[in-house]
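Changelog-linked ticket: magnesium ion example.
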Amino acid sequence: MKTAAYADYLIQWLENQRTELYGMDGYTLGVSGGIDSAVCAHLVARTGAPVQALILPAEVTSPSDVADAQATLESAGIDGQIISIAPWYDLIMQQLSPVLNSEPERINVLKGNLMARLRMIALFTTAQSHRSIVLGTDNAAEWLTGYFTKFGDGAADVLPLAGLRKEQVFELGRYLGVPQSVLDKKPSAGLWAGQTDEAEMGVTYAEIDAYLRGETVSPQALQQIRFWHNRSHHKRMLPPKPKSPDEAEC
Ligand SMILES: Nc1ncnc2c1ncn2[C@@H]1O[C@H](COP(=O)(O)OP(=O)(O)OC[C@H]2O[C@@H]([n+]3cccc(C(=O)O)c3)[C@H](O)[C@@H]2O)[C@@H](O)[C@H]1O
Ligand SMILES: Nc1ncnc2c1ncn2[C@@H]1O[C@H](COP(=O)(O)OP(=O)(O)OP(=O)(O)O)[C@@H](O)[C@H]1O
Ligand SMILES: [Mg+2]
């Protein structure tokens, strides 16, 4: 990758989407303390357009991630706000408890998906009030595996990192000046204590990246990549629509 040239391309691409496709004034994004949102923050900072950056910790969010998110904003030269989603989460879980299955599968994932969707609400509400577009931070590895919450962090107006393998996101991060603490940490959705992407998916980003480069990967890695890819087709498509009465000749 010609890193500097690709960074310039992405900055211009973002501006084209914002002005020509959407006709909007700025950008809104969530900044977690992880590499994907850090790269996005640096890219939008370099457009010169207004940016609303939100740090949205839940109760499970570690203080070090919040500190890394703040360091990210400082390094990008943009202001941000810290807004806790914990009270919203507690209220929704409490009010929904009568209708929730009392023994759901993957309870951590269910709770984490609620957090991701609460962040989506915060971002779209803020974006609309500023006439901004919402950035999604998914990269090519996450898109392939569907490793995001449908209508949560997967909900966005643009996906600037969707063409980048994880290794390329790091490369861009180093070039753009993302803080070292962010570059050094293991990718995590931060949806429960100790969660890492690679442990949950059962495959490393190095292996997913190798697959994306078209290289041969181990049978175990291939099995896991196929498993995650096949279970997530529904996330990469628009909701199916039936024929109209005219089309169905009814
Ligand atoms: N066949 C099917 N199997 C399961 N769900 C199906 C479905 N067809 C439609 N659906 C719909 O999709 C929903 C499930 O999809 P979804 O809600 O996305 O849930 P799901 O894919 O089960 O969970 C999200 C995954 O993404 C990870 N994640 C989430 C958020 C952020 C990050 C990160 O890296 O930061 C990672 C998270 O740890 C978890 O592994 C169902 O409620 C249903 O409405
Ligand atoms: N605590 C948070 N505050 C604000 N936004 C968040 C928070 N947690 C997650 N997000 C949003 O959800 C996105 C998806 O999370 P994800 O973990 O995939 O990316 P990341 O944390 O930026 O990088 P990495 O995958 O390396 O951890 C983030 O990029 C960010 O936009
Ligand atoms: Mg993360």
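Closing comment: Example verified and attached. Strands lie at 26-30, 51-55, 80-82, 132-134. The pocket of adenosine-5'-triphosphate (ligand 2) is lined by residues 29-32, 34-37, 54-57, 61, 119, 137, 153, 187-190, 197 (CB under 6 Å).
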